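pipeline: protein-struct stage 2 | run 1193 | PD-(D/E)XK motif protein
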Amino acid sequence: MMRTMKMMNKVKSIWTAIKSEGVGSGFRRIDAEHLLDFYAGVDSMGRLTLLLITQKNPSIELELQSVKIHSVLREDNQWSLLFILEKPELSELFLLFCGDLIESSRQCGEKSRGLPFVLARLVSWRLLFERGNFDLLTEGQVRGLTGELLHLKTLIGTISASAAVQSWKGPDRADQDFQFEKNAWEVKTIWPAANEVIIASERQLDFTQRELELIVIELGSGSEDTEAGFTLNQLIDEIRRTIKSDFDTYSAFESALLRSGYVIRPEYDAWVMTLGKVTRYKVSAGFPCIRPQDLSPGIRSVKYKLNLQSCIPFQI
């Protein structure tokens, strides 16, 4: 977390320095220790720019709203991949974008993997740009994402990290948060002493196709001094350290985070959480839920509250 923020501050300071020097355009290497050759700078039109020098032609045919992307063949036969901010009023958002590309690609392991990783990352960023989904996650969204990540962490500890990350479908708004061919898990978070959860649709607890478990995670609140307290940023850093040796899994995890609307931001450190009781329920015949076949003709979808007391007989 701290390294990402320092990197973003460094990028911002380079932009500021070049503009204040009145030299027009210019670029400076961001981090000599980074595996990839990233430069921050200002182009001839005074626009904030991120530059990546690559050995291969990026061959990119992708557009981002407010960010111009194009590649140029250099005199040394390398390629310059440029990301240019076209709307100055979005400079803080562009800084988040630059910081994410730089830091998320740090774990590539091999330089040859860098360009494919960055290009794949851009696809996820395009979805965010199209959604206009750059506001901070709400406290409810932070808690929901935290619950999914805590279950992901559990799965990583019991099966392979690759399989666990591949099963995480919450970012894609699937019916259940985690899905394998024959098993699925739906994760809900509650405040301490709460006794109900919201079921978003008649498909969320549908166990027709897969064996299904409902995972209810109790999350309390705390402060910086709370023992065993943690933040969303800290939890994500922990998972990153666990899976960083497997590049493909790491890349898939990073992409899923972006689809969830998460970009590392210091504001998320304000929400300190504590992990309480984790309860598992077997969703099977007799479980109090509404499935598609339970809907009367003319009713297309439902959303309802599930009382957890009524689920006790199905507790695992």
